[in-house]
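re: ur msg from earlier - yeah i can do the magnesium ion complex, just paste it... oh wait u already did. ok heres what im feeding in:
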Amino acid sequence: MKQKFCSLRGMSDILPSDIAAWQRLEATAREVFGVFGFNEIRTPIAEETALFERGVGEDTEVIGKEMYSFLDKGERNISLRPEGTASAARCYIEHAVHQREPVSKWFYIGPMFRYERMKTGRYRQFHQLGAEAFGIAEPQQDAELIQLALAFLQKLGIAQVRLELNSLGNADCRRRFSEKTHAYFSNHRHVLSADLQKTLDKNPLRLLDSKEEVMAPLIASAPLLLEHLDEASREHFEELQRLLRLSDIDFVLNPRLVRGLDYYSRTAFEIIADSPLLGTAGTVCGGGRYDGLMEQLGGPSTPAVGFAMGLERLCLLMGADAKPGFEGPLLFLADAGAGDEVWKLLLRLRKAGLVVEADLRGGSVKSQLKRANKLNAQYCLVLGEAELQTGKAQLKDMRNSTEREVVLAELEGMLR
Ligand code: ATP
Ligand code: MG
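and the outut:
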């Protein structure tokens, strides 16, 4: 028996019938991100594993459990990227971009890989649209990014969303808060699984981000970071909120929002769409500030803030209205004995930028016309010897079956 191949679990094909939503997402992204002054970057989908360990944090869910890591043929430990920020920061440092420009605003679109348990809105290969702004520490930059994310969603027609906001303070206050959190959860050590106990000892703040059921009530009464913010972070956070109000952006403060990755400082935010279409995977955008990341990766001290959106989740939300589908060709050429002349005309019209199809299998005129119908062609021309001799043919409008005579030499102008 022949072996039957399937795509890997959690990794999907996107067929032409589904491509419209993706193309609309990408075109809208390029338009809206361009308006906000963001330029596209493309980085490789694989990097040294150490980059993600250092950048994202070794004991985060993503690095600890979800990475596709392997030794390549040169025994290098490499990983498929689970997210885009570490790569963007690596790229920024490697090309010494800070020496050329004080502020860089970048975006990327591409596949990410995480070995996760599959469900609606959660896959092993998924696509993110991300933005990174390097060089500005002021809350104005945080506000601009949030405006951008919301403007993009709005342009897609996804307006039913909630913006949640928190501040994680500076490294120092996170350290103090981490100790407090450790003490709190230590009192409940007996109800924690072995795994959670390990997290408690390695990185207690991660527990606040845990999605495990036993954790929900514990997290609900855990100490709040907002109450321990350092003065500068508090001012930063208040100014951000003022700017958002000034921009007519609604938000809710969520003191439990810690985000899954280690590199955040100060601002953390999520945009959530509470739609049944997404099941439990309602977060469409996650982002925040990571002023310490560049230095952690051996680069120049550079303030930075960014976000990433999950495109599969946006596709689910866009649903049917994003599927205008393939329109069908403007013209179908049927060959009734014109032979090479059909072939030449096809090429001539396509060079003029017109969407023209023919049935390359040949066959009877009847079967060719069947194909024209199936393709949903708007007009059809049947070309035989008579048409070649007179240089004229009947152009049939397939939608209402009317016909009119056209001069073959003038087809381009006429069809336009
Ligand atoms: P979650 O809490 O849903 O696991 P996360 O905190 O791991 O999200 P981020 O790393 O912040 O997610 O990624 C940003 C966005 O990318 C998410 O808000 C989501 O929209 C999308 N995303 C993350 N993981 C997946 C996945 N496995 N499949 C599809 N989309 C994903
Ligand atoms: Mg996750």
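cool cool. Residues 19 and 325 are 8 Å apart (CA to CA). ping me if u need the other ligands too
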